[in-house]
Predict the structure.
Amino acid sequence: MSKSQKFSCRLYNFIFRDKLPSLKNKFFRFLVYHCLFNFNKILLMKMAGAKLTFNTQIGRSNLFVAPGNIEIGDDVFIGRNNLFQSRDKIIIGKHVNISGYSFFLTGSHDVRSSDFKSIYAPIKIGDYVWIGTNCTILPGVTIGDGAVIGAGSVVTKDIPSYKIAVGSPAKPIADRMKNLNYKIC
Ligand SMILES: CC(C)(COP(=O)(O)OP(=O)(O)OC[C@H]1O[C@@H](n2cnc3c(N)ncnc32)[C@H](O)[C@@H]1OP(=O)(O)O)[C@@H](O)C(=O)NCCC(=O)NCCS
């Protein structure tokens, strides 16, 4: 990350994660978050190196570790309080709904090594994916187009396209229709 990207990233996390959530007045909070600052959040994310469009909605208190490793397609909703630990790439497709309170982890440790070696692998999320609340997506996982991840799931392996997967570890329990055609934002 360049110095200016690092600065933009810190500024983003300082304003949108640490400071603004403490605003007490509900109306002001709504105005600030939804009307004024979504644009600025995206601008700062872009300045910090992320690839995303202005047709993205980012809820409050999300933490992006290295925005330069993040690519988000058009028309994506990101709810509140997610951690995007983007030490490696996190690539999100179009029309994706990330409900909130989830962890996207691209880093881990080799627990079989003597030196607790760090390991990194990218996360890929296809178009029209819905990730329910409170999920953990582990390094190296690909979630195929149109898949749904049920609330509270831990995704340890790839989930094929158009599957509804739940649990820890997340396993497909049903199919989703393939002719998906909707907008999220
Ligand atoms: C994944 C989900 C969409 C499945 O909905 P559904 O197709 O209606 O599934 P059902 O309720 O018929 O459940 C089917 C089975 O999966 C189980 N199941 C459903 N969701 C589960 C979950 N998140 N974790 C573990 N098991 C789950 C049910 O217990 C049921 O098991 P059974 O057949 O042994 O009784 C839904 O359960 C879910 O998790 N939604 C996310 C909600 C959310 O995060 N909202 C955020 C705000 S928008």
User: Anything to note?
Assistant: The chain has two domains: 1-34, 38-175. Helices lie at 3-19, 26-47.
